[in-house]
UniProtKB/TrEMBL annotation:
PANTHER family xref list: XANTHINE DEHYDROGENASE SUBUNIT C-RELATED (PTHR42659)
FAD-binding PCMH-type domain sequence ranges: 2-178
InterPro entries for this protein: CO_DH_flav_C, CO_DH_flav_C_dom_sf, Diverse_Substr_Oxidored, FAD-bd_PCMH, FAD-bd_PCMH-like_sf, FAD-bd_PCMH_sub1, FAD-bd_PCMH_sub2, Mopterin_DH_FAD-bd
GO molecular function annotations of the record: FAD binding; oxidoreductase activity
Source taxon at top rank: Bacteria
Keywords (A to Z) from UniProt: FAD, Flavoprotein, Oxidoreductase
Protein name: Carbon monoxide dehydrogenase
Membrane-spanning ranges: none
């Protein structure tokens, strides 16, 4: 069995304590939440932090509540809590739906929404869902608290807009307009459950029957989680019929670096991204 390199363990009980530890140990430290991404990397020695800052005991970061036209979700809210939330299911069906596709029950019992987006794995489900929902991500560091739009948060593979001494504390999800439907679908790797190609879609239909707003995110196929803006542009202002949707999803990965590996070539992933996007958009429309 693989064994991590030696490290010092620091359990934090408050956000301020965690930030102080990050300031103290700098680049030699990593933050541990659920641990389902970090611990395997440490066991394979792909990541070798000298200091591990465990924030799992900060109970104040675990909640789901409605606040001023948004739903606030604490960074340490687990996948299981999200999956079971009636409040989230009412407003954002794709969030508990997508969460139910993550790993297995043990993973969902420990994994956290904040940990997933901070890790920014392009094949993970949560970054794409958060991006499609146009979430605001609240982070805190030595200089205080700031809010980052999801569009600006996911920078590259395993790279976010977080500063080294900041941690994610909350996600704010704007409650969608009337006549909005959402969905999440993916073609999953059977062994890891990660997305080979996935899509999160939020579609709003106007009073005239045309698409008044669309937010489409692609996961798994590209080197970073992306908003498929060419697909969105091809839907908005149009009738949501089969021909419009088929034409729109052909642009799912336009202008993006698409992954090619043992699980699928670039050509295969481009085609599967379009197929999954079509299915997801149709499901979102059915839910309006």
């Amino acid at each position: 069995m693989s064994v991590p390199a030696a490290f010092d363990y620091h359990p934090a009980t408050t956000v301020d304590e965690a930030i102080a530890l990050l300031q103290q140990y700098g680049d030699e430290a990593k933050v541990l939440a659920g641990g389902h991404s970090l611990i395997p990397a440490m066991k394979l020695r792909l990541s070798q932090p000298e200091h591990l800052i465990d924030i799992a005991r900060i109970s104040s970061l675990s909640y789901i509540r409605e606040e001023q036209g948004s739903i606030a979700v604490g960074a340490l809210t687990t996948y299981s809590q999200i999956e079971k939330s009636d409040l989230l299911r009412k407003h954002f069906p794709l969030l508990p739906e997508g969460t139910a596709m993550i790993g297995d029950q043990q993973v969902r019992n420990r994994g956290t929404i904040g940990g997933s987006i901070a890790h920014s794995d392009p094949a993970a489900d949560m970054p794409g869902i958060v991006l499609a929902l146009k979430a605001e991500i609240v982070v805190r560091g030595p200089q205080g608290q700031r809010t980052i739009a999801a569009d600006d948060f996911f920078v590259d593979t395993f790279t976010t807009a977080l500063e080294p001494t900041e941690i994610v504390v909350e996600l704010r999800l704007p409650i969608p307009a009337a006549q909005t439907g959402s969905a999440y679908e993916k073609l999953a790797n059977r062994a890891s459950h990660y997305a080979i190609a996935g899509c999160a879609a939020v579609i709003t239909r106007g009073s005239d029957g045309t698409c008044s707003a669309a937010s489409i995110a692609i996961t798994g196929a590209t080197v970073r989680t992306i908003r498929a803006k060419a697909v969105e542009s091809a839907l908005v202002g149009k009738q949501l019929d089969e021909s419009t949707i088929s034409a729109a999803v052909s642009h799912a990965t336009d202008g993006e670096d698409v992954i090619s590996d043992i699980h699928g070539s670039e050509e295969y992933r481009r085609k599967m991204a379009a197929v999954v996007a079509r299915r997801t958009i149709l499901k979102a429309i059915e839910r309006i």
